[in-house]
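[job 4471] stage=fold_predict status=RUNNING
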Amino acid sequence: MPPYLHNGSVPSLAALLNSRMRPRYWRHSEDRAYDPDLMGWRHEVLQAGKAAAEGPAERARIYDTTLPGYGNGGHTYSDDLTDQQRRALLEYLKSL
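[job 4471] inference complete, writing C-alpha cells
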C-alpha cells in the first residue's frame, strides 16, 4: 500500500519503479484518492518556491524529500527497465 519506501517518500509504485518520476515536494490530493494507473496516491507535485511559500498549516501537509530522513533516493534498480517493461510490470502487479 502506498506511499512507498521506509519513510513514505514515494507516492506511487510507478514512481518507485522510475526514480525520475519521484517528486521532491508533494502532497496528497484533497480527496486522498488512490490512482489505479500509477498504483499509488493521487498527489500534487510542488515546486520549491510554492512549497516554501505555503503557510505553516499547509506546509505540514507537504512531503519535503530534501529534509534529513525524508529522502526518496536510492532503490534505482528498475531504472534500467524500458518504459514498456515498467508498464508491463505494473500491469502484472495489478493482477495479483
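[job 4471] summary: The chain has one domain: 13-95.
[job 4471] exit 0
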